[in-house]
Amino acid sequence: MVTRRSLVFAILVTVLASAGCRELAQPGQASDLTNLPARNQLVFVYDRSISIQDHELEHARALTSERVGRLDYGDRVVAIELLQQALDEEPRRWATQVPERQFQNQVVPRDAVVKERFIQDIRDYIEAFSNPEDRDNIGGTDILSTLHLVGSELRARPDYRTTFVLFSDMLQANQVMNLEGLTRMPSDNWIQQEAARGTLPDLSGLCVVLVGARKDTQISQIVHDFWLEYFEVTGATLVDQNYTYRPVQLPDQPCG
Q1: 3-class DSSP state for residue 80?
Q2: Can you list the domains of the chain with their CATH numbers?
Q3: In angstroms, rounded to a whole number, what is the distance separating the alpha carbons of residues 223 and 235?
Q4: What does pTM read for this prediction?
Q5: What are the respective helix, strand and coil percentages of the chain, to the nearest 5?
Q6: Which tens digit of pLDDT belongs to each residue from 144-202?
Q7: At residue 247, does pLDDT exceed 70?
Q8: DSSP element (H, E) containing 244
């Protein structure tokens, strides 16, 4: 015969067993964190070529700092300086990840303290990528090669939602192609031909935000159309509102 006391004891044992070794939430601290958002990866790429003015790099720094301040637990940050001439250059790259919560099923104040300190460290490290000094030795702007590096970052973290932010005037300028003043333009079907040859990076799933690119002149419109087609063919998502010159801030989820 099961007594009332034995039944209560059995229920208590079951509850304690299901709790395991987890830290019990304190009153006022508990929070439903079962439906955690997807982790995000932000890939920042900085064009420090001499065609970029100092105030544009300072704007890139301010936008980066503000967006980094909105990072969440587990989010990842990658910073890359744009290549100059070719893919075989040694890239300048830095990456880190915000620590996860210590306990995924509750809010613990020390997690927030750790995150804020980590975010400040990210700001300090990433600041050098928008430094306007010591740029006289930069000999080109190779956006096309750098996008292969971005594709590698995308493939390395398939479980992350990756947003690519490029601070650049989008004027590819190396021995293969020079969009500055339309000096050395590709053929009309260049993108399709390169895609058929398999020489373009796979950017499927990548969300693109371009900062520093103009489209208020006839020449800049031609450059704008080239990049819209390029990202479409490579599988990335670039909505026209994210092809910008001087945005006030970077969006959280620019591709929805």
Answers
A1: strand
A2: 44-244 (3.40.50)
A3: 19
A4: 0.84
A5: 40, 15, 45
A6: 999 999 999 999 999 999 999 999 999 999 998 999 999 999 999 999 999 999 999 99
A7: yes
A8: strand 243-244
